[in-house]
Specification:
With 442 residues, the chain is α/β, with parallel strands linked by helices. 45% of the residues lie in helices and 13% in strands. Helix 7 links the parallel strand 4 and strand 5.
Length: 442
């Protein structure tokens, strides 16, 4: 009787509409469980689909916003790149058809001068620069305006941006790369070491990756530094001397760059020329350099700090005028030899070279100051102190016999003449008035 009552309790309110199941309570419970689980599974699928849709849309919006916010890309941008990269040498000229050169750090000191020289002789030039704030970016922007007035287009971007580099090589089959972008300065490395690794090592690798994947592969000429000689005390510095004892992080990153470029030459067949610059100076120079800051402080009546080495020995530098450096850079491009890789695969040995580019006539810092005093007609207020342990070396002196032999490199500008040209530019650029000792544009 109890079983019948239980069955009657389970009948629907409208008899005859549903067939009565007699398989027992366990079957009914399992049925309800599976029905509930199926519903939950459907809801879970729905939530997963909604989440995936949201994430995809968010990724699309983020990518799109980054694309539209980028300072490069588009048909107009590509036309500017192609026009700037096109050589303009006269047909049948003795120099040939002309080069198409990507110049990194084009708004920098050496980059601007090299870009102008290349364009002047009819080569195609495209620049790239990130316009960082290591020193006043307005000077770099003024250099960019100067380049633009001569038909050189400078892309604002970072050499660590692989997408940008790939795009540049897709748009233009560059024959050469002149790699001058770097975090400069020996002393600043103690304040911001990460910037040196980011620019001088990671940035170099990023650029070399783009070069070895390019078709055709360009020949690479890049700026190393005389700082790689470090604690070497054999003078004059020769390319055959030891460079495994750097005195600063800056020097260490440049030495690492020489090892890295050698690796890409060996594995991928990139033609590589490294140039060890010796204390480059001149118009449009870097404000962090001693000759530049000395000039500014002398004119403003501020004291300058002159360092001395141990035992009161005056520091000496192989000051090299910018025009001489430019001739060495262009000669390196002209004689670089072709890369031998295709699509990242080496097909044969490619040239690998390193040259010193200096003036071969070291001058002491006090002599430099006396020359500036004479041209500025102002006496400097000097604080002479012992050189701190910040990575600076007491002297530099270049042996340029290898560059003279293979590049026909021959510096012609003395420090006297070079500083005279620099002072003339400085007074003109900053609007200095000798009568009132004021600056109009600082």
């Amino acid at each position: 009787m109890r079983v019948v009552a239980d069955e009657e309790d389970m009948l629907p309110s409208t008899p005859g509409k549903v067939k009565i199941e007699r398989s027992g309570a366990m079957s009914r419970q399992l049925h309800r469980c599976f029905a509930s689980t199926g519903t939950m599974f459907l809801w879970a699928l729905f939530l997963v689909a909604m989440t995936a849709t949201y994430l995809s849309f968010h990724s699309f919006v983020d990518t799109s916003s980054r694309y539209f916010a980028a300072s490069w890309g588009g048909l107009h941008w590509e036309r500017q790149i192609r026009a700037s990269a096109s050589p303009r040498r006269p047909p049948g000229s003795a120099e040939g058809a002309g080069l198409s050169v990507l110049v990194t750090g084009a708004a920098g000191f050496v980059g601007t001068h090299c870009s102008l020289a290349l364009r002047k002789r009819g080569d195609g030039v495209v620049g790239i620069d990130n316009f960082n704030k290591y020193y006043d970016p307005s000077l770099k922007k003024a250099r960019r305006a100067l380049l633009a007035s001569h038909g050189v287009f400078v892309v604002e971007g970072d050499i660590n941006d692989g997408r940008l580099l790939t795009k540049l090589f897709d748009v233009v089959p560059f024959t050469h790369v002149l790699h001058l972008a770097a975090q400069a300065g020996v002393r600043y490395a103690m304040e911001n070491p990460a910037s040196y690794v980011h620019s001088n090592i990671a940035g170099l690798v990023s650029l070399l990756e783009a070069c070895k994947d390019a078709d055709p592969q360009p020949a690479v000429v890049w700026a190393s530094s005389s700082s790689v000689y470090g604690l070497n005390d054999a003078v004059p510095f020769s390319e055959a001397h030891r460079t495994d004892r750097p005195a600063s992080l800056y020097a260490a990153t440049k030495k690492a760059g020489e090892e890295i470029t050698h690796t890409y030459n060996h594995i991928y067949g990139l033609s590589v020329t490294g140039l060890r610059f010796f204390t480059v100076y001149g118009p449009w120079g870097r404000p962090d350099m001693a000759y530049f800051s000395f000039t500014r402080n002398i004119l403003q009546g501020k004291p300058i700090t002159v360092y001395r080495g141990k035992d009161h020995v005056d520091l000496a530098r192989d000051f090299t005028y910018i025009d001489d450096i430019v001739r060495g850079c262009l000669a390196s491009l002209d004689t670089a030899g072709r890369s031998t890789g295709t699509g990242g695969r080496k097909r044969g040995p490619a040239p690998y070279r390193i040259f010193n580019l200096g003036n071969t006539a070291p001058v002491t810092v006090p002599t430099l100051v006396s020359i500036l005093e004479r041209y500025l007609r102002v006496k400097a207020k000097k604080n002479v102190v012992e050189m701190p342990g910040n990575g600076d070396v007491p002297f530099t002196h270049a042996n340029i016999s290898l560059a003279r032999e293979q590049l026909e490199y021959k510096p012609t500008t003395s420090l006297e003449m070079g500083l005279k040209k620099f002072v003339r530019w400085y007074l003109s650029y900053y609007g200095y008035n000798r009568g009132t000792h004021t600056f109009n544009n600082l």
